[in-house]
Amino acid sequence: MSTTKLDELKLGYRFTWGKILQIFEIGPYAIASFHPWKTDGATVLDGKTDFEKIHYHVWVYGKDTCHTYDSLDEAMAGCIAYRSEGANHQADRYFIASLRLDNGISKDKADELVLKWWSEYGKGETDGKAYRALVSTVAGN
Q1: Where are the beta strands (DSSP E) in 87-127?
Q2: DSSP string, 44-67
Q3: Count of domains for the chain
Q4: Which of 56, 93, 101, 117 could form a disulfide with 75, with the two C-beta atoms 3.0–4.6 Å apart?
Q5: What does pLDDT average to over the chain?
């Protein structure tokens, strides 16, 4: 039996979409890094781990968002966008796309972009941990 329920995964239950490596928690957000199951076309080969890939699955306030991302950066942005805009959000995709326009982005530029994005979409965060983690990740620190 497998699950996507965060509390069950913390107890060691099997994750529906792959083999969990680690669960990160920042305030209301939880992100699990995992190796997905291998696929054959559109068929998921349940139980056959693809060790060449790492994906990131997201929960907000313990609720499964039903979103998986290819990078930790995208997952962090996805958490905040989901919390701010709900299930049909797009802010995370625009944010990440804007950062990728410049491959050599500096920390100052990353801070500027993240702060602008945060002021529009990250409202409600009280301790700033998610913001600092996002800035650090985007800047490559």
Answers
A1: none
A2: EEEEEE-TT--EEEEEETTEEEEE
A3: 1
A4: 56
A5: 80
- Give the per-residue pLDDT at 14: 95
List of residues 6+ apart from 82 with CB closer than 8 A: 58, 60, 65, 67, 89, 92
Query: What is the extent of the structural domain holding 11?
Result: 2-139
Rounded distance, CA 131 to CA 128, Å?
5
Which residue type is seen at 76? M
CA distance 35 to 30: 17
Residue spans of beta strands (DSSP E) within the chain: 2-3, 14-15, 18-26, 29-40, 43-49, 55-60, 63-69
- Separation between Cα atoms, residue 137 and residue 115, nearest integer Å: 14
